[in-house]
Structures are given as structure tokens and as C-alpha cells.
Amino acid sequence: MPTFVIFDLEFTTWSGAMEQDWSAPGQLREIVQIGAVRVNEEYAVVEEYETLVRPVVNPRLSPFFTTLTGIDQGDVDRDGLAPARALDDFLAFCRGGSVLSYGNDMLVLGENIGWARARGETIEHRALAPGFLNVRPWVNAVAPVTTGVNSGRLWQALGLPRPGTPGDEHSALFDCHSIASALRHLAGTGVVLPDGLLRVSGAPGGS
Length: 207
What we know:
Blueprint: E1 3-11, E2 31-40, E3 45-52, H1 63-69, H2 73-79, H3 83-94, E4 99-101, H4 105-118, E5 132-134, H5 136-142, H6 154-157, H7 172-188
Parallel strand pairs: 1-4, 4-5
Antiparallel strand pairs: 1-2, 2-3
């Protein structure tokens, strides 16, 4: 069955960093968590991917980040992968099909791929193919109630049941399920992504 991927990132941040677009010295948007779900054409989740990543430039997480995401230093030190490994694994999960995000997470992904390669690290899988798409402008246009709402609260803004996956907003995998719920709901009302926007891949296990 054709599938595509929805993904979400959590990355290093500090109080005021978003408002300043991470412009303070030494503040980079280093990925700390990647979440992704593979969904079929009905937006039903058929596969999940989740991993923690060890930041390099700022290996110590800020208290602000931990409060926001619930991810603490011990989690990352114990379970985090090296950036190149995590990025390569995630790109392999995408398998060349369309990859959707609610926001410009693909830009952060590209930054982190660039930094890893600048350090001489190898990422074998193709990065940022044309199938990476930001669906936030479309979702906000067809469902104005979602305007200004983050990915982890889409289900709430649309009056949907809370996603059954563990976690809360600002947990990457939970946010992915929230996005999938929103798209599934919109499709059920007859509002679907424009024809030709999605480039599907083969069934799980294919190339």
C-alpha cells in the first residue's frame, strides 16, 4: 500500500531563542529528538520512528528545553545517537517518498546535515529530496482555527480525541500523531491535500 511520512523535530533552545531566531552567540538549532510516522493514504499510522540525538556544540541541554520537552540530560546521555547516525537512520526511514512537516522542520534538518558533513561525518542516504513539504500553510488555510497552533495541539484545536501515543506537545512522536489526526480529520470532511502534492513510496520494507 502506498505510504508517506510525517515528521517532527525537537532541537536545542533557550528562553527567548525562538523570538530572536536563535541569533545569540553559540545558539544553534541542534536536533535532540526526531519523531516520524509512516501513514497510508487514509492517514492511518502504519509505522513509527523515534530517536534521541546527542547535540555536539551545546551538549548540555538548557533547563528551558527540558521543561518544554520533558527530555532531560540523562535521557540524551544514555540513549542519544550521534547526529550523523540519527540523520542517516531517519532518511532511510523516509525511503524516497513525500515527507510532511507542520512547519519548516526541513530547514532545521538541512542545517544539521550540513553541520555533520562539515565535521567530516558520513550520511549515506539522500537528504532533502523534493518530497519534503511544509503543510502548515495549507492546514491553516483550510482550517483557520489551527492558525497559530503548534503541531502538538492540532488535535485539540480541531476538537479531536487526544492521540493515544504516550507524551504531550513538544514530544516529537506525539506531535506527529497530532498532525496525522488533523490530516485524517480534514480528509474525512472532504478536504484533501492537492493532487500531485504527495509522492508516495512503496509499502514498508520497500525502497
